Amino acid sequence: MFNAASRRACAFISRPRNLQCNKALSTRTASHKCQPGNSTRSSLQRQSQTPFSLLQHTRPQYRQLSYGQRMKRGFQEASKGIWRKNPILLPLAIISVAGATAIFAYISYVELTRVGPQYHKFPPPVAESLRTAVYYTEVDLNPAKALKAYKEALRKAVELGMHPFSDEMVGIHLQVSMMLEKAGLVKPAIQVLERTQTECLKWVEEGRKKKDAQKPEAEAVTESIQIDDPDALAMHQKMKELDEYEDRQRDKVLKKVVGIHMKLAELYASDYIQDEKKAESYQEAAVELCLKELRRRQELGLPVGSASEDASTAWLNLSEIATALTDLGQTYLKQEKNELAMPLLLRALDLLRTDEGSTPSCKQVTLLADVSTAITGELHKKTPSRGSTAAPQQLIDSGNQWAQKALDVAAKLQPPIRDEECDMSCLAAMYNLGEIAHLQGKRKEAEQYWMEAKSLARGLGLEENAAHVEEALAELKK
Predict the structure, then answer these.
(1) pLDDT for 409-428, tens place per residue?
(2) Among residues 405, 448, 444, 397, which one has the least CA distance to residue 425?
(3) Residue 369: other Cβ atoms inside 10 A
(4) Is 328 contained in some domain?
(5) Model pLDDT for residues 170-222, shown as the tens digit of each residue
(6) Are residues 384 and 309 in the same domain?
(7) Which residues contact 447 (CB under 8 A, 6 or more apart)?
(8) Which of 71, 94, 366, 470 has its CA 20 to 30 A from that of 420?
């Protein structure tokens, strides 16, 4: 009992406190001793002042962030650990986005620089149909759908008042033929070209006849009437410009007809048709048209053979006329009609020299070699046997000169002007020199030329030509 009562009594006795100096908050120096009374009062003061002081110095302050700062903070929070969490998907996503952007930029560039300019001359409805037609021609070849789209484009062009024989309209017809040829439909392609060239020639001839019939009458009216009305003058000027456009367009259409003839010759000579007579007839038609128009322009004092392509020179230049003559001449060479090939080749060479001046090209080398080939063919016909004295000396000298001239011109040409065509012509010229020497009985000279020709053929990778030269060498050694 006593023990329990004593414990309860002791519980109410206040124990002395251990007063310690708070050194961190003391403003006194280390040499001063802490006094209990003062410490208690200062402690009570701090307890009473602490809440107010904390409220005063820790009051929350708010600042509004801008939209950019919020976006930046959002990106920063979102990017934390993104590489670590997606080590494969994130690089693939970046590469995919960059690739898609590059592809889109390339497609836009091609559209603006290549595709768009092809259609800017057409009205939008016509251009839309042409885009569909070209898609089914170049991308997804479908002759039926492409032909339908081309017909739709022609119909819209006529409704919108486009000139039926303008460059654009004739070009659509030629594009149809190209599409059919690409699809392997050569006969329909030929029919389109033949119909186009017939309509073009008819329009040109009728227009020129009409102009020739109206010319004296128009000159008489112009000399006798003085026009003072501004509206009448404007109308007269407009009609004059229209007549000039028609003349210029007739020249362009006639130029296209020459190209159509040459294309028809190519198609008839192809493996699909194999009609050499038709091919030859169209080559002859192209040459006749070229020479006829050349004479007409010379008689009228019109420009002939200019390399520029402006309004006043819509006709073929001299190089293009020479190409038509060369094609027909080479056809005659294949048929061994050397007497017919020679005039064409010489005329083509004359036109080409006039056009190129002092800067010859490989076309001249080819023509010179072709002339020597024609002369060599004639020598074969007129020489009864190898080494015969009956061989015409004039033809021998002429053949040697033309072949050597081809080699001399080729030696002056350097790449990139000198190309494979030049090397092939040199090969033909060297072979012709060896052939002429063989006809004269000069075996060593013939062997030398043929060995050079064989070496050149091997260097060009022309094994068939090299084998042909080897046959000639084997015959020489018999």
Answers:
(1) 999 998 888 888 899 999 99
(2) 405
(3) 28
(4) yes
(5) 999 999 999 999 999 999 999 999 999 999 999 999 998 888 887 665 555 55
(6) no
(7) 434, 473, 476
(8) 470
